[in-house]
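Reminder: ligand-aware prediction takes two inputs, not one.
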Amino acid sequence: MEINGMTLLKTPYIEKKPSSLRYYQEGVPNIDVDAWTLNITSLTGNSVKLDRSALLALPQFTHHRRMVCVCNWSIKRYWQGVLLEDVLAEARIDTQATANTFLKQTSVGTTDKGVYESWIRLDEALERSTILAHSVDGEPLPLEQGYPLRLIDFGLYGYKNVKGLTSIEVVDQWQLGHWERIAGYALDGTVKPKRYWAVDLKSHQFTQNKGEVTDW
Ligand SMILES: Nc1nc2c(c(=O)[nH]1)N[C@H]1C(S)=C(S)[C@@H](COP(=O)(O)O)O[C@H]1N2
Ligand SMILES: [Mo]
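Here is what comes back for the chain with MTE:
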């Protein structure tokens, strides 16, 4: 399949990827995509809702980038979606962020376990071309992988990036997200230089630099 001039291949060894269900702490939500919207709130509290068709009307990008989990595995896939910057601009939100501007992400959640939340630095997320992905490897995201939308800042570990997203909010304070609260994971969540298992390469790889892994 060809998208945006890029030939999409199925991620190699995808069947060896750790189960996504283990990475959906609040339980996989039941989503009616026709009723679903992304709620976007500015620092001053103004809210705009975008539905799926409004998101699909924005410029679409396919990024072949590597996601890394703090549990030492990673996977490089073809993520398709829209830029965080374009989504904020569409909601008429100022994209001039500082070191004290954060983005709170909230999942749809489930009635028994609640929501999964994460706070990331907005300035760095924008610099790193953070995306809101609706598809992977040319197919809509499976429910357990974040349908209908997930945010991915590839410079950060998976736990900072919320699947089954329902709201993003510009805020002026960090708060502890799910894993920071229960397991003491770092608040900023930057990918660390070390050895990771690359599912798609079926090998261990070492990365020398912190942040997004771009060398393998
Ligand atoms: N809503 C929600 N998003 C989440 C999580 C979660 O439990 N709930 N887990 C995070 C973690 S720890 C990782 S590694 C990735 C896993 O993404 P995957 O299911 O595509 O492997 O999702 C992240 N986003
Ligand atoms: Mo993770």
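The pocket of molybdenum atom (ligand 2) is lined by residues 23, 69-71, 158-159 (CB under 6 Å). Residues 84-90 form the longest helix (7 residues). We will return to this case in the review session.
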